[in-house]
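Please predict the structure of the following assembly.
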Amino acid sequence: MADLWQEVNQILLRDNDKLKISDIKDDIIWLYLRRQLKEPEIKLYESPKVFNKSINEYDHKYGLKNEIEFIVYHTENNTSNDITRYCNFIKKGIFEARFNDHVAHVLMLPKKILIDDKNEFHSLKGAAIQWHDKTADKYYIHGRRFSKKLFFQVKDRKLSMLSVMKIKNIEQRYITLQLYGIDKLMSELHPELINESKKGNKLYSYKVDEDLTLNFLLYSCPSTKNTYTKFVDPFTHNNNADKAMAISHNMSLEAYLSMEHEG
Amino acid sequence: MRVNFSLSNQYQKPIRHGDVDILPLLNGDVIPKDAKIQKDGLVMHGENGHSHTILNGQVLIFEDHKYIKAEKDTYLIHEEHNKTLIPQGIYEVKQEVEFDPFTSTLLRVRD
């Protein structure tokens, strides 16, 4: 399991040798001339932080109205050559661009992107999206984005299982639970199984202390088969896992059991 | 664009698509007349960038409520979930909720 989770399928490195800044600038000038606008000042950025700061400053100075949209795909004004050149322009190493009357702000590609076998951003060693200045590195585990702090807590297995259960985002919680293992959840907390339904929903109880007992569901998504956990209100489910599940899906037990379309 | 806000052959059962619940409008409930069509068909968008979207139907919004008017062959699609049929009818969209035992409140599931 651990090896599987460490796996990075592909590392996409920016190829600086193929990056032709002059071509990018030529294309930007072409875009402006095509709209009968003057050649803009072209600003290239390597840092998302500086890129966003610069745009905000521009907006503050000139207002938001003069942003230019060059290619609108549903209009008839674009020839196939226009579209092709525009697409090729984007592929030349641009991560994001913002065009205004006077200035073209262009954010270049990150230094490195790491992805898993499903082409989701992923790395358990560090940031999955790495920028040259490191100020805007992004942390992902199998496509789920984590804050830097939570990422390192998860990857270094610093969290107790109760802390894992408390992660607010259900997808982050799911990924962390998969990483730590359901077995660890059971062996560390020793929750009491209250009820298990034919639909595979399991309702557990875990006594934290004299004043607090947590009830939670362990269940699988019908489509992805991913196993999730969620806390449920101990005073509404009548010790029935399906009823707890129905309540969390905004419906009665009868309606939940009648469902024909689940995905 | 005008919308027909009621259908005679209303499907009676709920539909689940991941963390999204599609609940049939029953007992004479209808989509509010002032509901606006959401052209992109977006039903729900998650924090991780994945979206629940409909094909061949209409998503309508009124205040904080979202509705679906499903015609023949309306489907819910999502990058990670199975393509799911929504039988002809009118529905309200709700999001899965979970209990926060530390504040005793119900919260929309964040994904």
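The longest strand of chain A covers residues 212-220. Residues 20-108 of chain A form one domain.
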